[in-house]
Every structure is written in structure tokens, then in C-alpha cells.
Amino acid sequence: ATPREDGRTLLEQTAFFAPKGLAGLFYWYALYPIHSVIFSGFIDRIGRSATATA
């Protein structure tokens, strides 16, 4: 979380995955669309929760 000049906060999320071999790469690319939906929803819920408790 990084404070911004306008008084708001920038919240960034990073997921790291180090695939091993062809099976790991297949897993990463096969599930990438699902993970992007899950992670975007996750960061949205964190932001709403932080706003509600502030």
C-alpha cells in the first residue's frame, strides 16, 4: 500500500509462481484466466474492507 498525493492509497498485489518444467508451464497458462479473476476479486474485497474500516 502506497499513499498518493491526492490522499488516496494505491494498493498493489503481486503473485509469484516459478514453474518447474513443462508441466509447471502448462499449469500456469491453463489456470491463468481463473487466477486473474480470483486475484482481481481478492484485491477488490481488500480495498472495500479497508475503506469500510477507515
Quote the average pLDDT: 86
Uncertain stretches: none
Q: Give the radius of gyration.
A: 15 Å
How large is the share of residues in beta strands?
5-15%
How many H/I helical runs?
1
Q: How would a crystallographer describe the biggest sheet?
A: 2 strands, antiparallel
Task: Write down how many β-strands occur, each being a DSSP E stretch of 2 or more residues.
Answer: 2
Helix-strand makeup class: mainly alpha
First-last Cα distance = 14 Å
What does this structure look like?
This protein is mainly alpha-helical and 54 residues long. The chain has one domain (14-53). 61% of the residues lie in helices and 7% in strands. The chain is built from 1 helix and 2 strands. It has one helix at 21-53, and strands at 2-3, 9-10. The protein has a two-stranded antiparallel sheet. A hairpin with a 5-residue loop joins strand 1 (2-3) and strand 2 (9-10). The longest helix is centred in the C-terminal third of the chain and has 33 residues, at 21-53. It starts with a strand and ends with a helix. The model has no long low-confidence stretch (mean pLDDT 86).
Concise summary:
The chain is mainly alpha-helical. It has one helix and two strands; from the N terminus they run E-E-H. It has one domain (14-53).
Tags for this model:
54 residues; mainly alpha; elongated
SSE topology:
Elements lengths: L1 E2 L5 E2 L10 H33 L1
Antiparallel strand pairs: 1-2
